[in-house]
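Exercise 7.
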Amino acid sequence: MPEPQKPAADGDKAAAAPADQKEEQAEEEELPPDEHAPGEGPQLSELSGIFVEKPGSVTATKGKDVTFVAKVDSSTLTRKPTMKWLKGKWLDLGSKAGKHLQFKESYDRNTKIYTYEMSIIKVVDGDAGGYRCEVTSKDKCDSCTFEVSVPDLFSFNSSGDAGEDAGDLDFSALLKKRKQEGPKEEVDVWEILKAAKPCDYEKIAFEYGITDLRGMLKRLKAMKKVETKKSDAFLRKLDPAYSVDKGKKISLTVEVADPDAPIKWFKNGQEIKPSAKYVFESVGNKRTLTINKCSLSDDAAYECVVGEEKCFTEVFVKEPPVTITKLLDDVHTVVGEKVEFEVEVSEEGANVKWMKDGVELTRDTAGSKYRFKKDGKRHILIINEATTDDTGMYYAFTNGGESKAELEVEEKELEVLQSIADLTVKSAEQAVFKCEVSDEKVTGKWFKDGVEVQASDRIKMTHIGRTHKLTIDDVKPSDAGDYTFVPDGYALSLSAKLNFLEIKIDYVPHQDPPKIHLDTSGTGNKNTIIVVAGNKLRFDVEITGEPVPTVCWMKGDSVVAEAEGRVRVETRKTLSSFVIEGAEKQDEGLYNITVTNPAGEDKASLIVKIVDVPNPPENVKCTSVGEDSATVTWDPPPYDGGVPIKGYLMERKKVGSARWTKLNFDVYESTTYEAKKMIEGVLYEMRVFAVNGIGISQPSSNSKPFMPIAPTGEPTRLTVDDVTDTTCALKWRPPEKIGAGGIDGYIIEYCKEGSDQWVQANEKLVDKTQYRVKDLPVGEKMLFRVIAVNIAGRSPPATLTQGVTIREIMGQTQGSHAVHQIYFYSSTSPTLSPANYLFLLYCVHQPENPKIRLPRNLRTKLITLVGEKVNLVIPFQGKPRPVVTWFKDGVLLEDKTVGTRTSEVDTILFIRSAERTHSGKYTLSVQIENVSDSADIFIQVVEKPGPPIAVIVTDVWGFNAALEWKPPKDDGNCDIIGYTIQKADRKTKEWFTVYEHNRRPSCTVSDLVMGNEYSFRVFSENICGLSDDAGISKNTAVITKTGNEIPPFKEKDRSSSPKFTAPLVDRSVIAGYTAAISCAVRGYPKPKIIWMKNNMIIGEDPKFLMQNNQGVLTLNIRKPSLFDGGRYSCRAINDLGQDEVECKVERCPAVTTHRWILLICGVDLSPNTLIKQPFIHYTVLSVLSCFVSWMFL
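Solution. The predicted structure, written as tokens, is:
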């Protein structure tokens, strides 16, 4: 407990703390470092530590003023905090502000700390009691408690005016210094408490030395339960608690005995007045309070008062879960760019948790790299400068939903907008190399023949925006060479050649014919020059001849003579240049140059080929989808730009989003691509870029929106319902896994046994789960399968494991019956009297005995929790349809809360909300005439147990305490599997777990601290978990400073030879069905287990699975065959001996069904045919069952 704050009073504002308080502080300072002083442990009411300074408990003097100060740190809060001062649990002191209670609030902008003060002017006895200050800010809250005591001048009794909610006081400190009083007459304290008001309980407990207030209240409550008397004013009171969602309305209803009696409603002690929010209703004896549009402020205690009688309840307002209304979008960016992930939620001010690859991103751990922004319902995660390390999956979580998006960061690529070109210059002229790149911030270096160029008065290098220039003035022959520009930080280089044109003048007295000196190095055959569309093309052709020849450029039959424009000719004395600015597709073709003079003529031809980026691909469409993938195809572009297509780049985006995500960084060569990592049920669009040696095309048109959806699972329980001579009726159940795409229908296929040519039986999809296949070949053995179809395609097929024979029916039909050939054979000739017989043969269905196919999970006890649903589907067989009856504990099932539904092939038992009364043995009986079959199903409905009873400290020695208790009265309808024991120091009142899963109803708690007094509580545990309440010890364990001498502990020898406590049992198994045999063994040290079959060790045979669980040994035989029968034995061996048990395992043959036909003498009988031949002999052949009747004529 913090040091009490001294009250600020007029005049003398410092009141000295009582002497016994100082002594307690001295004792607290002497505590060991690992022990908390009383009141210094963590407060149970604290939800988050936002208090900087908390008000402390004080002892005030009557008539003086006292002030309490609380400070709150708002640096981590998104909104201004709200402070409430409460007395007890519910009384809000804000409504009592006036001369007696004054409140003050201040704010420090530098430290961002709010300071709240509450002053009590002229303290009176009624101000004593427990107080609480509670601060809330959006989704954070914190609270702390403190005490105000007003001592009397002659006694230390605390005032009882604080009410029953005044809080717990530490009476042990006051009892230490209480003066010894003379012996008093013995009185029954419990009789006094039963007659007293709840507000006087503390005063009476203090007066008679009762320190365990919690135990006192429990005992008093138990005594009052016995003597509860019926309320005279209320016929039905309020429930203990109500729950309502935020924004909904709730009605609180009571029934009163006197319809004319006045009634009042209170909220946290304040009377409620009728309004639009609070509506009072009175119908007969019922009185209803309706609260409309409940908010968090309506989460309070409510009270209904009729005369002097009251009834109480609490209303809890639940906030609805926050859902995500706008999902995250995938982002693809380059290094250094800013990235924003935006999500929109359903409520303003909601908490959104951001995670990257499973690691939470917070303001503390993210640093300056990540920023979190809130704008109403929008929440934004900002990455200032993205790096390749930021690549990954990002998640946004709320308490009602989640969204994810993928971030892909790639290295920034530098794009060359204009490359440098070769130059041919004369001496003393200026040479300028110029290039342009996409990034203005990129710097670079110039090299000549691999050596870096240094700036000088003649050589200058400039960088303006995206343009880089190298200028060489007064060109000299030494300047000729290869020049290269290399951008810093990129594996890229741009090269060009500087040709020095040296002019030599020779005097030739005679004429020279013209000559074209054309350099076509680096081109292909026929002098083909390839130019990228949009770039500049310049032909510099050197010409010689005397006199100076005339130059003529031609494209095809057209002469090019323009000196200006996009396509022009620049002519000098010995040089002719053909220039094309911004080459276009129409500039492609054959170009001829002709030079003439009086001495002759010369010609040259050039082919110019213009190449460009390709056209975008066409016909982009999604051909198939999966659970998180989709397959997309497209057609190559109609124009490849004059350069072969290298491959394609793909992008996708969610419908409604403007952000495209790149799917591949390397060029993809095929025209079919499978996109993965998609979200099922979300609409996507895709587009494709074509890539050739020049660059990337424009994007294609967006594909039609598609949605990744997984195909359904295979249909289940495919069975044959009926077979005729040319048809077969099939039945099945829908797949267990359907998915978001649903089911459009089913496809039924069949084929002959031994063939793989499946034939589809239905032209259109079948909606129902049954179908009759027609026009089947008679006498053939056919296989059938069923396939579910949805938007994602076909599911895996469900196929019959055995073929179905399509049987032929001989003879003619009469009505609904068929007449067949009948033959009788006998080994002897019976003597028959002369008579005529009429045989009528009727074809009937093969009778099928009723049989229950009990699922494996129902062969053992079914355990479920209270309130859960129970839905049992049990298939059966039998023809004609059997009569199904359900029993519970041997009595016909008539419980209305338990429903049953029966079809032709199965029956369903369902319970919408299980109760413990539903536990028991349920018997299913199926019957056809006098043949029946039954199966038992055991259901156990369980819940958490009650608390243990009679928890008591039986012995204390040294630093140990022994506890004992009794099992709980309510075990939750299942066995108690253990107990959890906790201890608490009476000073700190904090509970710590000592043991978990303790099986015995007793334990010893060790390592207790000397000088402390401990209480203990015990929780019981079953398969549902720990009990909600705990059994608290009636007495305490006081660890005295002088310990007793502990006798030495003699450890018990637990060694024993192996002994089987449960033997192996003989059993019969069915071929093909996995079986298990079990036994139990004990022994110490742990024995070695050896399984044997016919005295041969089984070893590591994969057909057998051997398990040992806490001494329970199990041998599983997987799908036993004819050779798995015999004698199985289990041997346990340790150092002290061995033991062995054995059993006999037999295999039962499978049951087969026989059908019969009667044959007689090879005579073909028609209906009503007279038989006059004597019977010679008869026999029975197994083909078809018939019913034969005859009569004498």
